[in-house]
Amino acid sequence: MALKIAQVTELINNIANVIQNNKEFLTELDSAIGDGDHGINMSKGFKAVKEKLTTAKINTVGDILKTTGMALVSNVGGASGPLYGTAFMKASSLVNKEEVNINDFIDMFQAAIDGVKMRGKANRGDKTMLDALEPALDVLREAKANGLDDITALENMKNEALKGVEYTKGIIAKKGRASYLGERSIGHQDPGATSSYLILNEIYNYVLNNNK
Ligand code: ADP
Ligand code: MG
After folding, report:
1. Ligand nearest to the CA of 175
2. Quick check: 11 and 203 in contact, CB under 8 A?
3. 115 CB less than 6 Å from ligand 1?
4. Which of 7, 45, 88, 212 has a 20 to 30 Å separation from 79 between CA atoms?
5. Are 158 and 145 in contact (CB under 8 A)?
């Protein structure tokens, strides 16, 4: 896997389309345990990302991710905007270059998770996006350490993220609006974990279809 500037831009646009296509689904999930705006927030944020990317001055992959993060932070009112925005901005600082490989991606992914944790003070098991993101990164790292090829490693990553989404159904929310429900949050999958899965799944799809 080696993605150049034009490909990373295309990938971010694809992620924006996936979010747009899942706007109602994400909003439905958030209606059950939150305030019903996760799909609206995410689609508004990624619409702004798409617009910004058409005019931003891009010299490195980091510039793409920084533009993405800043658009999310400044256009999304809900908790998810600042959290995903921080994730993309933290990842951006590591890729001051024109191409990224899988090892760069692992480092960026770690920085993104650290950013979410720093900003949101949540941990795994709190029924948030971290329940999809953290196990997915662990599995990706493990797959590469075991010498698996990039596509298989990314496939394992996105499958683990989906397992994380399933896991959120059985636990009590400890952070965010869903935590107000306490035990009544059990039985519902977390909207943010679901959008995280959708993003990771799209990264896998893109690399699968554009592997050089
Ligand atoms: P809001 O909760 O402000 O309405 P959204 O509905 O857009 O924002 O996003 C809700 C999602 O944000 C949750 O499903 C959860 O995954 C994530 N989330 C909320 N608080 C935190 C936190 N402190 N840390 C990590 N993720 C969080
Ligand atoms: Mg909400």
Report:
1. 1
2. yes
3. no
4. 7
5. no
Residues with CB under 5 Å of ion ligand 2 are 30, 34-35, 37-38, 78
User: Which tens digit of pLDDT belongs to each residue from 102-119?
Assistant: 999 999 999 999 999 999
CB 132 within 8 A of CB 145: no
Instruction: Tell me the best of 126, 128, 134, 172 to mutate to test the pocket of ligand 1, counting ligand atoms within 8 Å of each CB and taking the most.
Output: 128
C-beta of 193 in contact with ligand 1 (< 6 A): yes
Which residue is listed with tokens 């329940």? 131
The answer on pLDDT for 211 being more than 90 is no
- Spatial neighbors of 130 by CB under 8 A, at least 6 apart, are 113, 116, 117, 122, 123, 124, 193
CA of 64 to the centre of ligand 2 (A): 26
pTM for the predicted model, two decimal places: 0.98
Please tell me what DSSP assigns to residue 101. Answer: E
